[in-house]
Amino acid sequence: QVQLQESGPGLVKPSQTLSLSCTVSGTSMTTPYYAWTWIRQPPGKGLEWMGVIAYDGSTYYSPSLKSRTSISMDTSQNQFSLQLTSVTPEDTAVYYCHLEGGPWGQGTQVSVSS
Fold first, then answer.
1. Is 67 helix (H, G, I), strand (E, B) or coil?
2. From CA 91, how far away is CA 113, in angstroms rounded?
3. How far is CA 54 from the centre of its chain?
4. What is the distance between the alpha carbons of residues 106 and 92, in angstroms, rounded to a whole number?
5. What per-residue confidence (pLDDT) applies to 83?
6. DSSP secondary structure of 8-60
7. Pairing relationship of beta strands 11-12 and 108-112 according to DSSP bridges
8. Burial letters for 61-92: b for 16+ Cβ neighbours within 10 Å, e otherwise?
9. What's the rounded Cα separation, in Å, for the pair 52 and 62?
10. pLDDT tens digits, 61-98
């Protein structure tokens, strides 16, 4: 059974970098054709797809976030990570990691505030 678990700080100051990790269990992240995504949901708004890293390490980002987003993979830890730079209060959201076509993490609340 594939499971995902997000981790990271719940509070980030404006202009800093938001860093989250997603630990995957039950499968190898490098299993062919798997794609690992980050999705967020700001308060009172819908889900926003942020980006994806595929099993081979290739990445693709939302055009609206591309300049501030980086997703990486640590195969030794079976984790993938999200970095979002220059955050503002508008980046406050619940952040989810997700295997496309598969399970989601439970989500982690990140607030951007001084």
1. helix
2. 10
3. 13
4. 17
5. 98
6. --SEE-TTS-EEEEEEEESS-TTSTT-EEEEEEE-TTS--EEEEEEETTS-EE
7. parallel
8. beeebeebbbbebeeeebbbbbebeebeeebb
9. 9
10. 999 999 999 999 999 999 999 999 999 999 999 999 99
